[in-house]
Design brief:
disulfide bond, glycoprotein, membrane, Tetraspanin/Peripherin, single chain, mainly alpha
Length: 239
């Protein structure tokens, strides 16, 4: 029976390491992709990166799962009850942190509209055109999503950018071949705002992260249960 439990534990650790590598790759993709959720939200507020920076969290957890898989294999090979208990304890802590992060992510997605609307308009009014990083990221967002502003071109009305350009708006807000874009041209072009596209990206990323976390969470629970079972068998052998 203990041999069967041992092989079950090794198999679960293998799957756990594969899950850790998947989570690690997913975190790297979210953190580095130019069109990712994190970079699109970065112009709104520094606080937004703290709320939605799941990429870094995935990298840390993914790397931890890979290392824990190695620790679990070593503990099973050496039949070390101390290492098995350490493995189960750390795995439980990681599982609890993932559940907490999932709850925060779901809550954030539910209130995304209010949060983004409160951050986006001030950023467009005050920072666009003045802050190079914000301007570059907003231009990239509007170009990739084929949208103008957060709600529409009116987000730029009375902004620092419009005042500095003599009343012009970003060219993406107009469907013309001219370099300048007047409010009248923007109204006629009727380019949609970026909110709906951004919200869709948030939900898509949240679903991807949630599905991946759920699968890995099940593996973590299985690893905890089997490691405790193996610990009990070793304890019975010693007694």
């Amino acid at each position: 029976l203990i041999i069967l439990t041992f092989f079950q534990f090794i198999w679960i650790l293998f799957l756990l390491q594969m899950g850790g590598l998947t989570l690690l790759a997913l975190g790297i993709w979210v953190s580095s992709d130019g069109a990712s959720l994190l970079q699109i939200l970065r112009p709104f507020s520094k606080q937004s990166t703290q709320v939605v920076n799941v990429g870094f969290f995935c990298i840390v957890i993914g790397a931890a799962l890979v290392l824990l898989g190695i620790l679990g294999c070593y503990a099973a090979h050496k039949k070390s009850k101390c290492l098995l208990l350490t493995f189960a304890s750390i795995m439980l802590i990681i599982f609890i942190s993932e559940v907490a992060t999932g709850v925060v992510a779901l809550t954030y997605t539910s209130f995304a509209e209010g949060i983004l609307r409160a951050w986006a308009t001030p950023a467009l009014q005050n920072q666009y055109g003045n802050d190079p990083a914000v301007t570059k990221l907003w231009n990239s967002t509007m170009t990739q999503l084929h949208c103008c502003g957060f709600s529409n071109y009116t987000d730029f009305m009375g902004s620092n950018f419009q005042n500095a350009t003599g009343g012009s708006l970003p060219s993406i807000c107009c469907r013309t071949n001219n370099n300048t874009c007047t409010p009248a041209q923007a109204e006629y072009s009727n380019v949609q705002g970026c909110f709906q596209q951004i919200l869709m990206i948030i939900k898509e990323n949240a679903s991807t992260m949630g599905g991946t976390a759920a699968g890995i969470g099940l593996l973590e629970i299985a690893a905890i249960l089997v490691s405790i079972n193996l610990y009990c068998h070793l304890d019975n052998e010693d007694s």
